[in-house]
C-alpha cells in the first residue's frame, strides 16, 4: 500500500454509490478502498465533482469522530464518521457519505482542504449494486462542469444551455445515443 502522507499532491477521492465504496487515488493510481454508506433513494448522494472545503474533529453524534465538508450546492454534505456502524455498506443517509470512525480517522489527516472528490453517477440510482465506475484517467478532467439530468432534459437542450456542440457532449461523455438519458445522470460539460 502507498503511504498517503507522501503524496498529497494528486490525491483524489472517488465515491461509488453502486458498490458503496470510497476509493483513494494518488497520482491516478488506486491506493486504498473504504466501505461507506451513501444516500438512500429518496435522498441520494449528489453525483458530480466537488472539493473538501472544511474539516472538523470530533463533531459527535450522528457525524461520528470526523467531518470533511464538501462544496455540494443546495445542502450540507460531507464525508464523516458515524454513531451507527451497522449502516456502513448501505444506502441510508440523507446524502452524506458515512465511514467507520476508525477509517475516517485514518483518512482525515491525509486529506487537505481543496482535495477533489468525485461522486459517481448511477443511472436512476438503481438498487442492483452495479456501478458506472471508470478509472480516473479514462473520464473527463476534474476541472469541467457537471450537469445532473432532470426530468425533461435532452442532450440537445443541455448542449444549447451550455453553448457546446452535441458532438462534443457525445464525445466527452462517451455516449453513443443522444436519445438515451436518465434522471440523475451526470453529463460532463467541457470548460
Automatic annotation (TrEMBL):
One of its GO terms (biological process) is regulation of cell shape. The active site is at residues 80, 96. Keywords: Cell shape, Cell wall biogenesis/degradation, Glycosyltransferase, Hydrolase, Peptidoglycan synthesis, Transferase. Residues 11-120 form the L,D-TPase catalytic domain. SMART domains: LysM (SM00257). Pathway: Cell wall biogenesis; peptidoglycan biosynthesis. InterPro entries: Cro/C1-type_HTH (IPR001387), LD-transpeptidase (IPR050979), LD_TPept_cat_dom (IPR005490), LysM (IPR018392), LysM_dom_sf (IPR036779), Transpep_catalytic_dom (IPR038063). Belongs to the YkuD family. It comes from the Bacteria. It holds the Pfam family YkuD. This is LysM domain-containing protein. Residues 145-189 form the LysM domain. Gene3D superfamilies: L,D-transpeptidase catalytic domain-like (2.40.440.10), LysM domain (3.10.350.10). Residues 153-169 form the HTH cro/C1-type domain. CDD domains: LysM, YkuD_like. PANTHER family: L,D-TRANSPEPTIDASE, L,D-TRANSPEPTIDASE ERFK_SRFK-RELATED. One of its GO terms (cellular component) is extracellular region. GO terms for molecular function: glycosyltransferase activity; peptidoglycan L,D-transpeptidase activity.
